[in-house]
Design a protein that fits this description.
The chain is an alpha+beta fold. 28% of the residues lie in helices and 22% in strands.
Length: 287
Amino acid sequence: MIKEALGTGATIDEAKNDALKALAADEDADIKFEVLAQPKAKVLGLFGGSPAKVRAFIEIEDDPFGKAKSYLGNILKNLGVSDAEMSFEADDEEVRISITYGDDYGSVIGRRGETLDAIQYLTRLVINRGSEDYKRVSINVGDYREKRENTLRALARKNAAKVRKYGRNVVLDPMNPYERRIIHTTVQEIEGVTSHSVGNDDDRKVVITLEEGVEPTSPYKDNGRGRGRYNKGGYNKGGYNKGGYNKGRGNGGKHYNNDAPKSDAPARAPRSDSEGIRYGKVEINKD
């Protein structure tokens, strides 16, 4: 890309100086000049004449991420970060931006990454503005994204194992598209379970379920008096004691005990399948 400016003056040197001021280039820049018109003196010192015209120009490298760098720099400055270093990598589909500075990334990451996600969204708008080739944008601060991905993968595996064992759906807390994609990808690697998303916008969350036709390996059974594979309070192998009915050994028959004590404790409600599962805090490696 070429940056240029025009200058005029009574002489070629004056025209060059005028062009340099208009160009506002660095002193060490490789500036080139092109004389467009020689100065012409006035006839008899009164009529006609024209100034010299000079074009000054420099060739500069086209930086496709210049606007994004400037935009991010302003955001970081407003967050109190003045010594940030940014690096950009890009392919046909995605732009990856890495930011490093100091040793405290909390103000840029925010609670559960919400501030970083907002910065990433706005930067994506800047990079794709006026472009026909849409690109995804991923911004990483320190090693936060790596830590976050490991945490989410562990969360997906843990809850997929519960679903596979007990057959009960698990609904995770709301996540952004990037985090949901990590959960879905991890669940796809586990046999017998599947996942889908429900909800809208900021409330969209992942649900992990058994695949159709797959039986849980250790299903829960509920007899109405609590959760469990069997209810010890109402089923006693020692004597088949069901609410005062005793079929004991050695008594020669059935015995009805109407004075059997009754529990005043209320039945424990089964856990809701729609209860959200929270994920842990991510610790950032500051080295």
